[in-house]
Amino acid sequence: MTVTNDDAARNGQETDSPYLLRADIDEAGYEPGHPIVRNVVLDVRPGERVGLIGPNGAGKSTLMKGLLGHLPHWKAKVFWRGEEENAARDNAISSKIAYIPEQPIVYERLTLWEHLVLAAASSGLSEDELNRRADRLLRRFRLNGFRHHYPVKFSKGMQQKTMLIVGFLLKPDLYLVDEPFIGLDPGAVLELIDALEEERSRGAAILMTTHVLDSAERLCDRFVLVHDGGTAASGTLEEIGRMAGLGPEARLFDCFHRLTAVDDEVEA
Ligand SMILES: Nc1ncnc2c1ncn2[C@@H]1O[C@H](COP(=O)(O)OP(=O)(O)OP(=O)(O)O)[C@@H](O)[C@H]1O
């Protein structure tokens, strides 16, 4: 089933764009001729939280890699505040984005504090600002006692918190967050939701993938559902509920199942 609100808006001729980021993606994949997803529009306004959802293997992480300029096959027009990004400028928008990957990536020989110093240096953050922001984040995510420990020896959840702290430290315009909830303890999930809400009220936008649909429903203003190599639905929960034929009160979980239902019967 394919229902989308975006078809009329695919010409990319925007002026005075309300969007912080808008990507009209023709094809995204790992080799030419084998796109993983086609014809997807991803857009996010300042202060908006958009949930990118879809079944395993639908291409959510692939789309995020494309936005970051890390994908070998990427046929897309990307607009930042209405201005088209020049593909020749590699990673042109990545300096405005904090990417929090699904699999934590930590440097083997750096302590947690050294990770923060490195991130601060690469984005021109002053020492005072680093100390002030880092102190609050380390306390918030309960890693204050681990400043001088090596994240490579942390648990998965602690490594994930390290990635979150590095991302929040930089206060970017846009957060790309790939499956933030799995692996965090319940207290950390609440802190994450609060931290994202603080960032949203500052005007930062959030594009996140997740399978934790009750948290997504609570947090996100709008959703893009990727399935079968394209956009299966996009809009607010109310709009998606209507598209799924479930009405405006529908839960995201039920919409997801309705819109991604497999036609073929599973053989016994
Ligand atoms: N480095 C790669 N090279 C080739 N194919 C890849 C690579 N990474 C992912 N894929 C393929 O791209 C498809 C989409 O993968 P992707 O990780 O984007 O899915 P996803 O929607 O994020 O899934 P999940 O919900 O399981 O995290 C899958 O078929 C996967 O096998």
TrEMBL record:
Q: Does Transport appear among the keywords?
A: yes
Is Protein biosynthesis tagged as a keyword?
no
Superkingdom in the source lineage: Bacteria
Q: What Pfam family is a match, any one?
A: ABC_tran
Q: Which SUPFAM superfamilies match?
A: P-loop containing nucleoside triphosphate hydrolases
InterPro entries according to UniProt: AAA+_ATPase (IPR003593), ABC_transporter-like_ATP-bd (IPR003439), ABC_Transporter_VariousFunc (IPR051782), P-loop_NTPase (IPR027417)
Kindly give the PROSITE patterns that the UniProt entry links to this protein.
ABC_TRANSPORTER_2
Q: A single Gene Ontology molecular function, please?
A: ATP binding
Q: Which UniProt keywords are listed?
A: ATP-binding, Nucleotide-binding, Transport
The chain positions of domain ABC transporter read: 20-253
Its protein name is: ABC transporter ATP-binding protein
